[in-house]
């Protein structure tokens, strides 16, 4: 299991479109992908879970990947989040 702390940079946070981009990217990996935000643990492969979490711009999250392709998943998803999931 590996993790990385990131800051959400999307101006409007993780609403439907960026949540969809993140979830689709997470689904490409075999490992479990979890977003920790405060005391919430969100399954990143679920668009509804990511959206329902209400993660706003500037929020610090912890991205956790656990499984056989965890390193590649963490690298790819971290880069996607840091680049604004196509919104910047």
TrEMBL record:
Record's InterPro entries?
HPr, HPr-like, HPr-like_sf
Coiled-coil residue windows? none
Primary location group? cytoplasm
Record key words, sorted: Cytoplasm, Phosphotransferase system
Q: Where in the cell is it found?
A: Cytoplasm
Biological process GO terms, please? phosphoenolpyruvate-dependent sugar phosphotransferase system
By what name is this protein known? Answer: Phosphocarrier, HPr family
Natural source organism? [Clostridium] asparagiforme DSM 15981
The question of whether Cytoplasm is a record keyword is answered with: yes
Q: Outline the extent of the HPr domain.
A: 1-88
Output the PROSITE patterns linked to this UniProt entry.
PTS_HPR_DOM
Q: Which SUPFAM superfamilies match?
A: HPr-like (SSF55594)
Q: Name one Pfam family in it.
A: PTS-HPr
Q: Which domain of life is it from?
A: Bacteria
* Gene Ontology CC entries for this record: cytoplasm
Cytoplasm found in the keyword field: yes
């Amino acid at each position: 299991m590996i993790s990385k702390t990131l800051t959400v940079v999307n101006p409007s946070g993780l609403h439907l479109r960026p949540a969809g981009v993140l979830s689709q990217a997470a689904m490409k990996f075999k490992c479990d992908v979890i977003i920790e935000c405060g005391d919430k643990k969100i399954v990143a492969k679920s668009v509804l879970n990511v959206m329902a979490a209400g993660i706003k711009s500037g929020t610090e999250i912890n991205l956790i990947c656990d499984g056989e392709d965890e390193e590649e998943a963490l690298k790819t998803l971290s880069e996607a989040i840091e680049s604004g999931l196509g919104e910047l």
